[in-house]
Structures are given as structure tokens and as C-alpha cells.
Amino acid sequence: MIRHRPAGSGHPYSVDTEQRFPVVPIAGETVTLGARADAGVTAVRCTLQWHPDEGDGQTHELELARVAATSRGRVTDGGHLASAAARLARVAGGWQATSPPVRFGGEYRYRFTAVRESGRIERTRWFRFRAARWRSDAAALTEFGRARVIPGSIEVLHDGHRAWRTRFALPLAAGEHVTGFGERFDALDQRGTELDAVVFEQYKSQGAERKTYMPMPFAHVIGGTGWGLHVDTSRRVWFDIGAGAADLLVIEAETGADGAVALRLFDGTPTEVLGAFLDRAGRATELPSWVFRLWASGNEWNTQAEVMRQVDLHAQHDIPIGSVVIEAWSDESTFTAFRDAQYLVTDDGAPHRLADFTFPPDGAWPDPKGMVDELHRRGVRLHLWQVPLIKMRPHPRAQAAADAQAAIREGVLIREPDPRGGTRPYRNRGWWFPLALMPDLTDERAARWWTDKRRYLVEELGIDGFKTDGGEHAWGSELVYLDGRRGDEKNNTFPVAYAAAYGALLQSAGRPPVTFSRAGFTGSQAHGAFWAGDENSTWDAFRWSINAGLTAAASGIVYWGWDIAGFSGEIPGSELYMRAVQASTFVPIMQYHSEFNHHRRPSRDRTPWNIAERTGDERVIPLVRRFTHLRERLVPYLAHSAAIAIATDRPLMRPLFFEWPDDPAAWSAPAQWLLGDDILVAPVLEAGATERTVHLPEGEWTDAWTGDLHTGGTTIAAPAPLERIPVYLRGGAAGDLMEVFRG
Hints:
Layout: E1 2-3, E2 20-21, E3 32-37, E4 41-51, E5 58-63, E6 65-67, E7 70-71, E8 74-75, H1 81-88, E9 93-98, E10 107-116, E11 121-123, E12 127-129, E13 133-136, E14 141-144, E15 155-158, E16 163-171, E17 177-182, E18 193-197, H2 206-209, E19 215-222, E20 227-231, E21 237-241, E22 248-254, E23 261-267, H3 270-281, E24 295-296, H4 304-316, E25 323-326, H5 368-377, E26 381-386, H6 398-410, E27 415-417, E28 423-425, H7 444-452, H8 455-459, E29 465-468, H9 487-490, H10 494-508, E30 515-517, E31 529-531, H11 539-554, E32 560-563, H12 574-584, E33 589-592, H13 608-615, H14 620-648, E34 653-655, H15 656-659, H16 665-668, E35 673-675, E36 679-681, E37 691-696, E38 700-703, E39 709-711, E40 714-719, E41 727-730, H17 734-742
Helix pairs in contact: 7-10, 12-14
């Protein structure tokens, strides 16, 4: 076996061994040509032919060298160097060669020849590319709004037949800050950095890796005249924000064959800039006030008995909850049927109704309907986990097999090119559920086919929402969607459509569209709530998550939260947990969650009682009780403030620069925000701290805990003992809000 995949797996940050790199070669530069072969292959060469538009061509015979095979960002032949060499001979290995510098004009053809130990020869088919070069093309960019693009800076990467990318530059003035870009974990101000906009599942360490589930090619530029921009595309975009040249913002965008890019420029305050962006991207749909109560979940709450036990424990400890999310509820095969449920397979993949299921008394979920009704009686809403994939490993059986066959037969799947020039169903290239099929939820018919199989959960069982997880699995610019467009244009839009499809299902049953997603893109603002994704229980992750919330808010996301003190690995220490609980009381969505740990002991649940027991810290439960009760009293304020945020474009979780764009301390002070119009929040983000620096902007501010009055326009050292998070109330609102804080 020898394999070459010109564009690789589609991993946006990794080069696979068996791909061509760069995918679009640059004239005058070399090209890496790679293949993977099984252990029986002893030599590989590449025949590279150049056929110029005019004149004689050339042929190069390239001998490939063994390399450690990498795929989807992982080293498959890796490990300790001393043992890696030995493994190369007996596992599928990588082979690569570097071409001579390639020329503009004409077509390159290449194929690989493998020699086996037996002497048998194997060849791939011929592959083709044209080398591209940058050329000036002012017509490629259309500016909407006041022109800011530097004349002469617009260039197109063109191979003589088609364009691939367009780039251009805008001026950055001294003192301007650049922020937004969707959900960004590493920093609020991106001036001096480089980043891109592509949906990606970065499992943990998002701040260190500088990758995100929810990018947007939108930015505020604050501190000068006040302006913003939106690169109006769903394709990948790169930004050099004063990194290469301090006074330039250089933007490079993937394009269609014509190279056309639309750039929308907005002038005004941050609120005006955001409003102009949302005029096109869409605004949040107002969600019911119960979303502002505590959300609770754990991936090991995988039986009805355990869910109800945890709900009972909340009541016993007087820690009120408003929502429970059950992740491990399904058969892990169809993701539509409860585990242990008995039913007849619908061979045509037709949806089931609740009456089609029998729930054994000794099963994991003996009475799902009774459970939902009891939760509702207690004032608790229920959300079920979803993933937009049809699992194919292990080989599907029963209903899962029927569903896969029906999806293929009904033509509701994303597809990919096959070696014969046609297409075949796309098989998931990510690490999670590899080789799964993926429905095209950007297509209305396919989305309805998919969500109808879940309709009974809403209409008959009565669930209140869905955790729409895993929207990042569409990899590859060559994917083919049902409307004929390709992955380069559609992949980023998938998570938007995913949440929209489930929201539409809920609304069709007369319920509010409460979805809870981690992935998104431009347009996600209109679809449900979001959390910051998977993260460890560390202080760094805590700080990164706050950055994510502030930048998401600056990009128009209203309903946002994160896993309190992280969800993965060993439990957080009690101090981190309590500081995170305090901070989460003052973000739009307050929720905790924990990763599956195979029910090992001691438990890694992030429940307050487990943290208290594991750490031996008796302060945990009383503190969580106090802040969750405060949260309950804040619900009317939060609901009112969310409605105002949607109506006025002033974020619910509001970075200080929205109100005070000319205040330098809005950037220099550690993370602070306004919650609504009147609550200033300054969380403690460092271990061992008993006070923190708080910037009080212009105006009058009242300490929410002591009632002390402060005149703004100054920075203070605020007391922050472990039981207190610095919070200040603005002006005339302080009187009513003080009553909320006193309880």
C-alpha cells in the first residue's frame, strides 16, 4: 500500500506526512511531496513532470527518504528516538522528498512509485498542481464603509488559472488596541500577535496553543478614532496584528477562484461597531430566565439513579440548581435511544416515538419520562448531550447500522472526493469518533431528517435543551456539501447550522431554543448558549477562560459560561474552586462539569461536596451555597440585562472598553467586566491572593459587600479574602442591588 493525499487530512495546524506542502506551491520555492507506505515497501520515488504553457518541460526523479509518519497532528511512528528507528521498518511509515524550486506558468504532474521487498512495483495515480505567485490586484477587494485599506497593498495569490488567497493591509495608529476575533483565550488585546479564524477542536490549553472553537473574522480597533472590521467570508482568514510591522494590520483570506473578498468597515464606539457587525451576523434570541440558574453535570452521572442522587444532594446541601445536563444518557451508538432501552429496529431509519421503547426496571434508565417530570416538579430543567456524527467504529449494528444505511440512501451526508473522480460519504478525520459519518446540517432537508429522530425527546419526553457538542469535525477544503459548495467555504459554518437545527427542533415543539455549544463562527450569536470547551483545573485555564468570555462577548455572544475551575484531570484545589465559583456567579451561564474517569476512586466529580471531601476544606460547601443563593437572587437582574444587551448591543458580560474606550486602565488592569449596566466584577485570578488591584472607572461605585462608597477614575487595592470577590455597584443602582447582595 502507498498513499498520497495532496491536501492531507485537513488539520489546519499540522502537515501530514502523505500530503503536498504547501498545498498551493509558491513559485520560486520548493515543495515537499510525501507518501505513506506499509512496512513491506523498501523504497519510494516520485516522478515530477513540469509542462509549461510554452516551451519544453522537465522531468525530475526524486528519491524519497523515510520520515516519522504524522497524521492529523500526531506522530504515528513517534516516541523515544532510540526506539522510533526500529519501529519505522515494521509499521506504516512516512516517505518524503523535496522538489527543486517550482516555476510559475504551466502544470506540474507527479506520481509515486513504491518498491516492495519482493521487487514488485506499485504506483499511485497522477496528481497535479500549478505554482502560484502574488500579484497586485486592487479589484479583488471590495470595501464597504469608510475606506481604510492602504492603496497598493491588495495582492492575490494566483496560479495563472485561478486565485487562492487575497491579502491587504490597514494602518494601525499608536495606542490602538485590537480585540474581538470571536472567543480568544490567550489575551484580550491581540495587538502585536498573529492569529487566524478557523473552527478547531483544541482539547485543553487553548490559551497556550492560541487556537479556538469559536473564531470570527471580526475585530474592534479601540483607542484612536474607534473603528472595526469584518472580513465577510466563511473561509479561513489570517491576521498579522502589528506583529510583522507595528503600524500595520495585514489580513490574508482564502478565496474562491476569482479572488474576491468583501471587507466591511465600521466607525464609532465599540457598541456601534458591534451593532453594525450584528446587523449582518444576527443577534441573540432571548432565552428564558431559568438559563441563569446553576447548571450541573458530570460525565459519570450515567444512570437515572445517579442523576437523581446528585439532584437530591444539591437539595440536601441547600445548593439550588436550575439545569442538569446528562452527557452519558444514550446507547453511545445511535445517540437517540437511552442506554438499555428495548425497541424494534426501523430498517428504513425512520424516527421512533416514546411508545416504541421499553425501559427495563433494572436498566440504567428505568423511567426517563418519570425522571424528567420529577425534575420539572422540582424546578430543574434537563438537557441531553449530542454529537453530529453517525458512529462507525466499532462496526455499527442494529439501529445504528440502519441509520447509517438510511443516511447514505437518503443523501443527507457531507461527502468527499473519491479516487475515481466521484464522491463518497465523508469519514470523520478527527480524533473523536474516527471514521464516523457526518450529516450535512447546513442543509434544511438533512437537518430535518437528523432532528426528527430526536423529536420524541422534546415532544414526548419533555427535555428542555441539548448540549450540542463536537461541532468541529468537518476537516478538509475538498469536502462536498449538499448545496455543491466545498469545505473551504462551508466547514466553518457547520457549527452555526448545527445549533440552529437543534434550536429549530425545540422551537417547533413550542420550546425556547436552548442549545449549549462550544463551537461556532460568525452567525453563532443567534443560536443559544455557549461554553468555553474542555480545560484542565488550573489557574492558567481559569484566566484563559475569562479572556474567552470577554472576547466572545465583544463579538456578540450573549449567553456564555465555562466549566467552573475546569473539567479535566485531577480535581481543582479548594481555593481555585471557590474563586472560580465566585467568578462564575457573575458570568451569563454558571455551570460545572467533570470528565469521564471510568468511575475510578477517588471521584473526580466537580460537585461542591466532592471537592470538600477530597480537599478536606470545610469552607467549600458554605461558600458555594452562599454564592448560588446570590445567583438565584440575581436572576431577574440577569434576565433584564440580557434583554437590554440584545436590544442595544451592549454586551451582558461587558469588557470595560465598551463603556470607557479612552481609559487606558481598561487594558492595563487585570481582567474586569461589567455584568449588565451596574455590576463591576473583579475576580481573583491568582493563588494565595487576599487583595487585588481594581480599576474603578469614572462615576460613583459602592462596594457590594461593605457599602463603602468610592469615587471612580482611580485604581484601588481591594480587599479580597477567600470568602469575597471584589464587586462594585454603579451609581444610583447601588441601593436596589445592595438588597440583592444582602439577601
